[in-house]
């Protein structure tokens, strides 16, 4: 397999984007990534999107978006793994370049979620759960993560305040991200007193409904070197799955797919959790970030809440987590999230993260998750 | 890149399968492929499915089906390219094995289309068209292909009878396929006098709405050799795209994506159309088979209809096309079709195609198409 590097990234302002369609958002973002890469043609493209069929009545977006981007005739595929669709697109692109099948691959994620009403969006998202055993019985994602949060609090003594602190930290980072949907700070009191969604989860524990896209260009590392830019290599790539239904898991506080994907990515990269200078994880709900940091081994099992409280995952802490603002503050256009995580890590490793720049990072990791953790895609990046 | 071979295939009876769910159909079919391969564990799996969100309210089927198959924890991805989703899954699996990322990859396609009513199914399928420029103005797929058929008749003198002969030939083959949804013969008169759908397309020119799945197991060719079975190598793999909206094409009788994918697959395999012993193509409507055989160069441009009339594409003709019965007689569970084409070619190359066996074929090709031709995936197979 060939060494692979990210040569360009692009992201646009996320939010409720009523004046642009899915195809407009995609093209604007993809062009930024191509511009950053200094390229105007690609050999192949992959788009991660969870359910454009339910959100905008359009499937077959691979070919559609290739055409609108002016890249008609190239291989153009959509991939889906619920909210891990973006990470999956990145991984498939990585495999394509590593294999030698393609030299320049554009990977992206896109979701246009606000063209439908709130009930329809909740239904569309619920199709990532096990519909026969969860969805049809009324469980939606806030409910699923509330079950996980309650179990974590019972088992490890995680507090309501610690959950809130995840949101507070991520908003503190997101306030410095010009692309974030909600670029402002919040307080623990505000989180705890915000509208209840599914006890113990309040509205400010939840990532929002968002329109947005993110893109990255992958090439063989040699080609990135020749281009004379910072070479950000993809040194680890992994994907793992688990039972979708929570009822089928041994311990709902433990994200087995994330644990397994993390382990594989570390092994492939020859790294361990202590080598990471920053980490972007899937904080769809505050409890998710806590469970993910435990499963990836960056904090001890059960200590996820305590680590946030101690400031270990702050931007200037032992291991900065979600310097982008995370899904919580930056927004969560589901299929786009995994690629946006890559954009943040690449910008940090290049030293281009502006006000939220971590001091001289060399190794970064992304963890993108589908459903209540049944799919996880991880990547590890290293600056040469 | 490593040489890749198909070591196992599986398909079940297609039709209106009301007593089984999507997950049941998938598991039954995947187990047949694993049994055929003599394996009980896989490293990774890819599922092609067009829109399980709209058909059965369930996205995220990669992880779900891995779990139900007893393969929990493996990387499990869904890919989509409308009706070319199955072919795309096969191609992604090919790339995974060729790259060295995985040794044993299970690829499959599945669609459960009859759990919704006819109007909802028509809507779900229409999301493969350009919704903003076609779907929302009332165009559905029979209408799109009727435009293509009318133009082909005008430009090349293709006759109504020639269109019907495609269906007659494919039903003649399908009558010998135990998995076909409609395993019986029909006549030109029956096609011409069947219910009008969109002039000149009648109901017997259309592939049906179908529930079904198909699966194949890919391994490095060395491993297939060691297993002591017929080694069916994947010698060509390609994917190409085009504008989705017919209005944006220069000539709607010409399938540019199919032409380009065919050219790439021939080049990769070092073959030309004359080397093919059989061909499975995407006859979603009778006119589609005519246009595809022209774009792949197995018949001269404009002669697709005349070639069918002359019997050139019959099972004992110059180049047998759709010995399986094609989408027309075998059925068309959209995401499954591309993998079912592979199943037919592999069974033919192994000499296991029963009553529809072609005499001693060595090289076969599949062509799987999305929308009105905006996506095409081709593969060429060779028996060692």
Q: How would you describe this protein?
A:
2 copies of one chain form a homodimer. By secondary structure, chain A is α/β, with parallel strands linked by helices. Helices cover 38% and strands 18% of the residues of chain A. Chain A has 14 helices and 11 strands. Chain A has helices at residues 22-37, 52-56, 61-68, 85-99, 118-126, 141-156, 160-174, 188-192, 221-226, 256-269, 286-295, 304-309, 326-330, 337-350; strands at residues 4-11, 44-48, 76-80, 105-112, 196-198, 201-202, 211-220, 232-241, 278-280, 363-370, 375-383. In chain A, strands 3-2-4-7-1-8-11-10-9 form a 9-stranded mixed beta sheet, with helices on both faces. Chain A has a two-stranded antiparallel ribbon with strand order 5-6. In chain A, strand 5 and strand 6 form a beta hairpin. The longest helix of chain A is centred in the N-terminal third of the chain and has 16 residues, at 22-37. Chain A is globular, with a radius of gyration of 19 Å. Chain A starts with a strand and ends with a strand. At the A-B interface, helix 2, helix 3, strand 3, helix 4 and strand 8 of A face helix 2, helix 3, strand 3, helix 4 and strand 8 of B.
């Amino acid at each position: 397999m060939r060494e692979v590097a990210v040569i360009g990234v692009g992201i646009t302002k996320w939010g409720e984007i009523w004046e642009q369609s899915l195809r407009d958002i995609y093209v604007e973002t993809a062009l930024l990534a191509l511009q950053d890469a200094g390229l105007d043609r690609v050999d192949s493209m992959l788009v991660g999107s969870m359910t454009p069929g339910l959100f905008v009545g359009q499937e077959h977006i691979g070919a559609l978006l290739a055409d609108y981007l002016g890249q008609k005739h190239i291989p153009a595929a959509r991939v889906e793994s619920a909210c891990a669709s973006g990470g999956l697109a990145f991984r498939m692109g990585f495999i394509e370049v590593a294999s030698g099948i393609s030299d320049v691959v554009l990977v992206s994620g896109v979701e246009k979620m606000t063209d439908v009403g709130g009930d329809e969006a909740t239904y569309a998202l619920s199709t990532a759960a096990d519909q026969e055993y969860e969805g049809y019985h009324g469980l939606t994602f806030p409910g699923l993560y509330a079950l996980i949060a309650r179990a974590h609090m019972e088992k490890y003594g995680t507090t309501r305040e610690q959950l809130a602190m995840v949101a507070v930290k991520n908003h503190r980072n997101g306030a410095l991200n010009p692309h974030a949907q909600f670029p402002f700070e919040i307080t623990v009191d505000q989180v705890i007193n915000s509208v209840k969604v599914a006890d113990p989860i309040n509205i400010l524990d939840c990532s929002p409904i968002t329109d947005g896209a993110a893109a990255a260009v992958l090439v063989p590392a040699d080609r990135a070197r020749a281009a004379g830019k910072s070479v950000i290599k993809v040194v680890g790539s992994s994907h793992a799955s688990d039972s979708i239904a929570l009822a089928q898991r041994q311990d709902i506080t433990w994200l087995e797919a994330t644990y397994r994907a993390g382990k594989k990515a570390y092994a492939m990269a020859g790294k361990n959790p202590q080598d990471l200078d920053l980490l972007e994880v899937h904080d769809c709900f505050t409890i998710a970030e806590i469970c993910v940091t435990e499963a990836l081994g960056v904090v001890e099992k059960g200590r996820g809440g305590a680590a946030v409280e101690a400031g270990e995952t702050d931007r200037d802490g032992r291991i900065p987590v979600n310097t982008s603002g995370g899904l919580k503050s930056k927004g969560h256009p589901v299929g786009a999230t995994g690629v946006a995580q890559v954009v943040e890590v690449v910008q940090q490793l290049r030293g281009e993260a502006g006000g939220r720049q971590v001091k001289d990072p060399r190794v970064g990791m992304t963890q993108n998750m589908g459903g209540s953790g049944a799919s996880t895609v991880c990547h590890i990046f290293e600056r040469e």
